[in-house]
Here is the input.
Amino acid sequence: MSSKITPITDAAEPSLLAPDGGRKGAAVAERIRVMIIQDELPPGAPVRERALAERLEVSRTPLREAIKILSAEGLVEVQPHRGAVVADPSNEELRGLVELLGVLEAFAAELACRNRTDAELQELRALQDEMMAAYARDDRLGYFRCNQAIHLAIVKASRNRALIHHHGVVNARLYRARYICNLRTRRWASALQEHEDMLQALEARDEAKISGILRNHVLQAWDKMVVMLEEAAANLPRRRAS
Amino acid sequence: MSSKITPITDAAEPSLLAPDGGRKGAAVAERIRVMIIQDELPPGAPVRERALAERLEVSRTPLREAIKILSAEGLVEVQPHRGAVVADPSNEELRGLVELLGVLEAFAAELACRNRTDAELQELRALQDEMMAAYARDDRLGYFRCNQAIHLAIVKASRNRALIHHHGVVNARLYRARYICNLRTRRWASALQEHEDMLQALEARDEAKISGILRNHVLQAWDKMVVMLEEAAANLPRRRAS
DNA sequence: CGGGATAGCGTGGTATGCAATGTTCGGAGA
DNA sequence: TCTCCGAACATTGCATACCACGCTATCCCG
Here is the structure.
């Protein structure tokens, strides 16, 4: 069998969400997703069909498909006859998303305690080491990537496909916020100990413990995010209008 | 402001999922969703673009949009160059979905404890009474509808938009299974007492209690579903092939 | 008689053109 | 000068035509 599709996306983050098929629309959606996450398309920015289609060198049809997908994921909002804009969640919505993410990850971790293999545990341990190394060398991007990878690995270890999918969607909506939060926050090592505890709970298959840790973990992330958002709001009053 | 869109779907269940815009594609998606739920399009059935487009009196374009939406929701699965088929979740996937639904509803109920208004509580009480009435007169469909309405109302009372949305998606994927399960199960009143307990916990704003009730509640639903599925599997060996 | 290759058909995938709507800018009237 | 109305433009929404891929059935060769 030959190569299935040309992987249009050569982005740094390899496919946050697994698209259903090998269609062009899904590939375009992935590219736009990356553009949104990397702030190339900031929140509130309009998503022009023709312009983007030309820029990505595809026709309007797959681009519209991509917009449908992203709209279903909540990353963009479409207004009839007025086009799509990158979603700009309010603080309240962000809070809801973070809480939801916490619940999903806590549940995933419970399942992971039951279902994990030793290989997965080792991989997590390796990621944890890598993250600590990134912390030691003050590599915030690497730290962030490892952090994400760890959470993703835990969710994947849950073996619950629906859970994995929905977590991916919620995570994508929060990705940008967490990213800039991670880059700008001062005391950015608070998660290290919690991750260590998580790993130990995972090793001991202590479901109750890991669930509590993760819900708390994500809520703390929210606390950090709040102050970040306040700062950001203070700096730039409004950015919606073009 | 005038009427926004012509509600194509006049189905019994009014819009399980709130689509984003007033586009034709979303309307078509809603119609197909109803067709899937009502078993007009049974699991495994292929979704023919041209045929369905002609049947629904729309062009292929909005129909394809609808398929994208449904695919993102997991209600249909598309294989590249081979078309879309109505999702036919395996028992394992169903189990995962049920567990996820339980977690989501449990969390929603916690939030509802915090955020509910007295009006919402009264509405829930009314629904509960209606459900008991339906049970008394052996009206399974009415019972099922009330049951769904109660769960939906609780989720809505959580005031968490993302949670509401994701719950809607998961619920839609399980709707058909729960429906036929409800119609065919023998001892179909087991949920009444639990619902009563739920309402009381909601009244007392007892978060821990309601969370436990709901997770257990949905898992029991799963147990019932399992035996149902076994019966069904025994009756009709395979239904995938056309 | 059996297996493999090829051709035909049906399907989804993509592109483009046309129609409808929303917006904005300019002119005219008060 | 300010406001309201209208027309033109830009952008999305829809439909249709064309293309590529996969499936299948038949025919030929071993």
